[in-house]
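ESCALATION

Customer reports they have been waiting on this structure for their group meeting. Please prioritize. Original submission:
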Amino acid sequence: MEPRILIVDDDIDVRDTRVRLLGRLGYDCRAASSSAEAILALEAAGPDLVVTDLLIPETDGWAVVRHARQHCPPIPVIVLTAYPRAIRQMDGTTYVTKPFANADLVNAVQRAVGHPPTPCASPRSV
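Update from on-call: job pushed to the front of the queue and completed.
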């Protein structure tokens, strides 16, 4: 079974692009558009990894990170942000600073889940 990834971003185009990118590489991706939706998905789906934007509706990406740390350990989290000053050092959290290449996200995901899935397409094809 391939690693399950929860992708959290309020921008539907960005979120769908990440789902397609990682899905084509063999990951089982689910999506959420807000912190509340992400927290529900964390509790229901039990993903192996969370990839979240920092600025999302209702609260922010930190609420998703805190929930994952407190209620769903040991799920690794990748935080995507255009604001490097907002980065907080938290164990098990990886940061990818925007803008980034698809390969940067793919590499961070592969490091977080411990192995690459069986590739179906190159990261550049999305």
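Sent to customer with the following note: Strands lie at 4-8, 28-32, 49-53, 77-81, 93-97.
Escalation resolved.
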